[in-house]
Amino acid sequence: MARLGVDATSVAPDGKGISRVQRHTVEALRALGRHELVVFARHPEEFVAQSHKVKWRPALVWEQVGMQRAYRRHGLDALLTWTERLPLVGGGRYFVWLFEPPTYRVRQNRAVGAGAYQRASDLVTLGIWKRSLRRAARVFTGSDATRDALDMPAQTLYPGLDPRFSPRDSGSEPQSPYVFTIASGDPREDTDAALRAFAQVEVPVLVAGGYVGPRQEGVEYLGRVSDEELVGLYRGAAAYVDTSRYEGFGYQVLEAMACGAPVIATGGTSIPEIVGDAGIVCAPDELASQVARVLSDGGLAQELRRRGLARAAEFTWAHVAQTISDAVDE
Asked: CA-based angle 247:84:246, to the nearest 5?
């Protein structure tokens, strides 16, 4: 049985995003049981046996020195990581899973005025990431959009979905319909486009996330919500609206579909491929009319719910574990 290391250094007790991806990947690989897993984490208490604490800091030192030493020390046959900065010296068989090109992240850091350390780290990334990825035995990407942006051989691997995101029970439909969206101060969210559309919506609009915008009739800002509250909001929504311009993987539209919410998105990078024909993807200036269409056409809304649930069911962690394990065993 091959020894497979997993770089789970992004996992944190209440982490989301890539933290959840790493956690669920470890759980799925362990459930599959084809390899002996050795997990490297800053919070090893989040995992069970064969987990080792990573003390190397900053991240670049772990990636260039600590990861290589851990590979040799634990006699690994392969190591799965989510960084594009693989060790540039030494041997090893590395598998990389990327959700967005590092060039996009660097541009975002510059736009928000990142600190001196982050700017220096970004310069290192720009200097080594392509050469680094050429050392990988396989590069997986979270979407076709990210794969195409890398301009190098890669295989799309969609992540699975947290089982907590599921449809409501029959008979528990909300009494008062509302439109739901998640917003932040990140310019890529294009929240202004959503607010312009919501000015023409005749039902209440609920906005979750770390964003409180201008006062607008019919719009209520909920702030950050728990996962349990988020599931309830998805389940009760007459429509879920997504206006993100850029997503390496559109997790929010997937969660909404899994909870039975009709999805209307303005389409950016990975969003159209995740939604497929299970939702409505339109231009920003068509958003208001499409929301009104879903709210007024019960048959269309029901069909979108049916398609969304079927589409969301295709994203499983069992498939992730199988794909990674097959690559390791090649």
From this structure: 10
CA atoms of 40 and 82, how far apart (whole Å):
12
CATH 3.40.470.10 fits 179-312, yes or no: no
Range 135-169 burial, b when 16+ CB lie within 10 A, else e:
bbebbbbbbbbbbebbeeebebbbbbbbeebbbbe
**Nearest CA to 273 among 297, 291, 254?**
254
Determine the Cα–Cα distance for residues 237 and 260; give it in Å rounded to an integer: 8
Domain layout of the chain by residue ranges: 3-160+316-329, 179-312
Local confidence pLDDT in tens for the 330 residues of the chain: 899 999 999 999 989 899 999 999 999 999 999 999 999 999 999 987 689 999 999 999 999 999 999 999 999 999 999 999 999 988 999 999 999 999 988 888 887 787 888 888 989 999 999 999 999 999 999 999 999 999 899 999 999 999 999 998 765 565 679 999 999 888 888 999 999 999 999 999 999 998 988 999 999 999 999 999 999 999 999 999 999 999 999 999 999 999 999 999 998 899 999 999 999 999 999 999 999 999 999 999 999 999 999 999 999 999 999 999 999 999
Task: Please state, in angstroms and rounded to a whole number, the distance separating the CA atoms of residues 8 and 42.
Answer: 8
* Distance of alpha carbon 222 from alpha carbon 219, whole angstroms: 10
65 secondary structure, DSSP code: I
- What's the predicted TM-score (pTM) here? 0.94
Instruction: Write the DSSP symbol of residue 264.
Output: E
Q: Which fold has domain 3-160+316-329?
A: Rossmann fold (3.40.50)
